[in-house]
Amino acid sequence: MKARVHVMLKNGVLDPQGEAVRHALGSLGFDGVEGVRQGKVIELDLADGTSEATIGEMCEKLLANTVIESYRVEVL
C-alpha cells in the first residue's frame, strides 16, 4: 500500500523559501506571482492494512513539525 503525506507551513508562519521562489520567478520575468508557499511531499510504501491512524502518528511524531506545519494524508 502507498500513502502520500503533504506537509505545508501553517498560515501565518513565515516561509522564506517560498519568498525566495517568488522573488526568483519575478527576476525571470514571471510577473503577477503575488505569493508562494513551499511544502514537501513524502511518499510511503507501507504494509497492507496500515491504518490512517498509524500514518497520522508517523506525521505527528516525525514527518511534520505540527507546531508550525500542517499535513494531509492521501492513501493511494
TrEMBL record:
GO biological process: 'de novo' IMP biosynthetic process
Catalytic activity: N(2)-formyl-N(1)-(5-phospho-beta-D-ribosyl)glycinamide + L-glutamine + ATP + H2O = 2-formamido-N(1)-(5-O-phospho-beta-D-ribosyl)acetamidine + L-glutamate + ADP + phosphate + H(+)
GO MF annotations, alphabetized: ATP binding; phosphoribosylformylglycinamidine synthase activity
CC terms in the record's Gene Ontology section: cytoplasm
Pfam families: PurS
Subcellular location: Cytoplasm
Known pathway: Purine metabolism; IMP biosynthesis via de novo pathway; 5-amino-1-(5-phospho-D-ribosyl)imidazole from N(2)-formyl-N(1)-(5-phospho-D-ribosyl)glycinamide: step 1/2
Gene3D superfamilies in the cross-refs: Phosphoribosylformylglycinamidine synthase subunit PurS
Enzyme class: ligase
Keywords: ATP-binding, Cytoplasm, Ligase, Nucleotide-binding, Purine biosynthesis
EC number: 6.3.5.3
UniProt cross-references to InterPro entries, sorted A to Z: PurS, PurS-like_sf
Domain of life the protein comes from: Bacteria
Function text: Part of the phosphoribosylformylglycinamidine synthase complex involved in the purines biosynthetic pathway. Catalyzes the ATP-dependent conversion of formylglycinamide ribonucleotide (FGAR) and glutamine to yield formylglycinamidine ribonucleotide (FGAM) and glutamate. The FGAM synthase complex is composed of three subunits. PurQ produces an ammonia molecule by converting glutamine to glutamate. PurL transfers the ammonia molecule to FGAR to form FGAM in an ATP-dependent manner.
Subunit structure: Part of the FGAM synthase complex composed of 1 PurL, 1 PurQ and 2 PurS subunits.
Similarity comment: Belongs to the PurS family.
Name under which the protein is recorded: Phosphoribosylformylglycinamidine synthase subunit PurS
